[in-house]
Amino acid sequence: MNPYDIIKRPLITEKTSIQKEDYNQMSFEVDRKANRVEIKRAIENIFKVNVDTVRTMQVKGKTKQRGRIVGKRRNWKKAVVKLMPGERIDFFEGA
């Protein structure tokens, strides 16, 4: 499987910014079928860093209502990747 098919996008929120600064962790939306080993290899290939640990979780899609119409957002998988000490991934540095 292509590493770019496994890693869909980085999650950039206030909470993930704090995790990045304090704990050297990054969060990504990943393919629902990918396991921890595949995610670790994909991150190391794409960003050329060394990964310490990978934690994954299934995020359930929320039910949303607009008037009488009820819908549901999609389910997705989230990976929290802890990098080795001294490693960094820069997304928006200097912007």
Description:
The chain is an alpha+beta fold. It has one domain: RRM (RNA recognition motif) domain (Alpha-Beta Plaits). About 25% of the residues lie in helices and about 35% in strands. It contains three helices and six strands. The protein has helices at about 5, 15-25, 35-45, and strands spanning about 5-10, 25-30, 50-60, 65, 70, 75-85. The chain has a four-stranded antiparallel β-sheet. A two-stranded antiparallel ribbon has the order 4-5.
Beta-strand content:
35-45%
Oligomer category: single chain
CA-atom Rg in angstroms = 15 Å
| Superfamily (CATH H level) name | RRM (RNA recognition motif) domain
The mean pLDDT is: 94
CATH topology name: Alpha-Beta Plaits
Largest pleated sheet = 4 strands, antiparallel
Helix coverage percent of residues? 25-40%
Helix segment count? 3
The rounded distance between the terminal residues' Cα atoms is: 32 Å
| Order of neighbouring strands in the sheet with most strands | 1-2-6-3
The CATH first-level class comes to Alpha Beta
As for the number of domains, it is: 1
Decide which structural class fits the backbone: alpha+beta
Give start-end ranges of low-pLDDT stretches.
none
The number of distinct β-strands equals 6
Order of helices and strands: HEHEHEEEE
> Which architecture does the CATH hierarchy give at level 2?
2-Layer Sandwich
